[in-house]
Amino acid sequence: MSKPDIVALDDASTYAYSSHISIEGTEIQIGDLLLVFDHDDEQSVNFFERVYGFNWPGAITHQINGPVPADIHEFEDLADDLANRRIAVAPEIEQASFFVDDDMVRTLSLYEYSHRDGQQPILIDEIRDPLSRTPSDQTVTLCTDGSGVIGELFEANPPSSKGEAEEIRAFLHSGGYDSYDLPESEQFQK
C-alpha cells in the first residue's frame, strides 16, 4: 500500500507534531473518537477509541471501556480502514470536567457521528478520583438525537445537586443545545 496523503491542518511544522490532521481528506483532531466497526457488519461498533496524538507511524488512541489501554493505528492501515468504512471518525463537539463532590470528578464528552442516514450524538460519561488520570467508570451512550442526550444526563442518571445540574447545563449549552430545552437546575437541589 502506498503512503497516504497526510496534511497538518494546524500551525505544526509536520503532522507528527500536529493536533489536527487530514488523512486522504478525512480530518482527525486530538480528542476525536474513532468508531472501530465489526469487520462483518459496518453497523456494529466493536470499540470506541479516543485519539490522543499523532507520531511518525500513526495515530495514538485509547480504547474507551476496552481491554487495550493504548493502540497505534499506522497511517497506511488507518487510511485503508477509513476508505473501506471499517473505521469512522466522530468529531468531539464539547468536553467538560467538574467536581461532583470532594472525591469525584466527572468528565462529559459529546461527539457527533455523521453517517449516510444522518447524524448521531455519542455521549461519554467518565468518573474518576481527583488525583487520578484513569477513570474508575466510563460509559458510552449512543443517542438517537439531542433529546436522548438530555434524557441520559437529566433522567437516566440525574444530577445529585444543583451545582452538578448547572455544570451539565453549561456543557450542553456550549455543545449547541438551547437552554430552553434543558431542565432547570433548581429541581436538583439537595
What does this structure look like?
With 190 residues, this protein is an alpha+beta fold. The protein folds into 2 domains: 6-90; 92-188, no CATH class. It contains 3 helices and 12 strands. It has helices at residues 75-83, 146-156, 162-174, and strands at 6-8, 20-23, 26-29, 33-38, 41-54, 58-63, 71-74, 87-90, 92-101, 104-115, 118-128, 137-142. The protein has a 5-stranded antiparallel β-sheet, with helices on one face.
Supply the key terms.
five-stranded antiparallel sheet, about 190 residues, 2 domains, globular
Helix content: 10-25%
For the record, give the distance between the C-alpha atoms at the N and C termini, rounded to a whole number.
60 Å
The mean pLDDT is 91
Q: Gyration radius, to the nearest Å?
A: 18 Å
- Name the strands of the widest sheet in spatial order: 7-6-5-4-8
Principal-axes shape call: globular
Low-confidence stretches: none
Strand content: 35-45%
Largest sheet: 5 strands, antiparallel
**Total number of beta strands:** 12
Structural class: alpha+beta
| Helix-strand topology string | EEEEEEEHEEEEEHH
Tally of domains: 2
